[in-house]
Design goal:
Blueprint: H1 2-34, E1 36-54, E2 61-75, E3 78-83, E4 99-104, E5 112-114, H2 117-139, H3 141-156, H4 158-163
Antiparallel strand pairs: 1-2, 1-4, 2-3, 4-5
Helix pairs in contact: 1-2
Length: 165
C-alpha cells in the first residue's frame, strides 16, 4: 500500500513538472509569435560556478564555470539588460560588442529572450524529459523495488538464487 502511494506521488510530481514546463514553453512561444525581433549588444559577462568536484575534505578538484553574457538593448530610449546562459564551460559563444538577436515581449519591454535554440528550448525540453522519466519510475516503482530487493537478497544469500532453479 505504501509503495502505491509513493508511486502516485511520483506520478503527480512528474505531471506537475510536465505542466509547468509546458506553461513556460507556451510563454516563450507567445513571445516569439507576438513579440518583436530586435538586436542587443553583449556589454560584458560574468562567471558563475556550475559545479565543483572535490574528494572528501581535500582542497583539490576541479571547478566548472559557466560564462554568462550580459546583453543590453534599447526600447523607446530606455536601456534594458538580460543575462544569457551558455551551454558548457568556456562560453566563447558571445564576444563583447557582438550583436545578438532577441525576441522582445510585446507588452513588457524589460522581457526579452535570446534567439538561439539553447536559450529557447533547452530548459523546457530537459524538464519535459525529466518529468517523463519520473513518471515512468513512478509507474513501475513496485517492480523496480521488487527487482532491487531480489538482487540484494541474491547478493547476500547466493543459495536462495540457486534454490529458484
Amino acid at each position: 500500500m505504501k509503495i502505491k502511494i509513493l508511486s502516485r506521488i511520483l506520478q503527480l510530481l512528474a505531471l506537475y513538472l510536465l505542466f509547468t514546463s509546458i506553461y513556460a514553453s507556451l510563454g516563450k512561444i507567445i513571445t516569439i509569435q507576438s513579440g518583436t525581433k530586435i538586436t542587443g549588444i553583449v556589454e560584458s559577462s560574468y562567471k558563475e560556478t556550475d559545479y565543483s568536484t572535490q574528494t572528501g575534505n581535500k582542497r583539490y578538484g576541479t571547478t566548472h564555470y559557466i560564462l554568462r553574457p550580459i546583453i543590453k538593448y534599447q526600447v523607446n530610449g530606455e536601456t534594458y539588460e538580460i543575462h544569457g546562459k551558455i551551454l558548457g564551460e568556456v562560453g566563447n559563444q558571445y564576444q563583447i560588442g557582438q550583436h545578438v538577436p532577441l525576441y522582445l515581449s510585446e507588452n513588457q519591454p524589460d522581457y526579452a529572450i535570446i534567439n538561439s535554440f539553447y536559450e529557447l528550448w533547452y530548459d523546457p525540453l530537459r524538464a519535459i524529459l525529466f518529468s517523463i522519466g519520473l513518471f515512468l519510475i513512478g509507474t513501475f516503482f513496485g517492480k523496480i523495488l521488487s527487482k532491487i530487493k531480489t538482487s540484494i537478497v541474491n547478493l547476500f544469500n547466493p543459495q536462495a538464487h540457486l534454490d529458484q532453479f
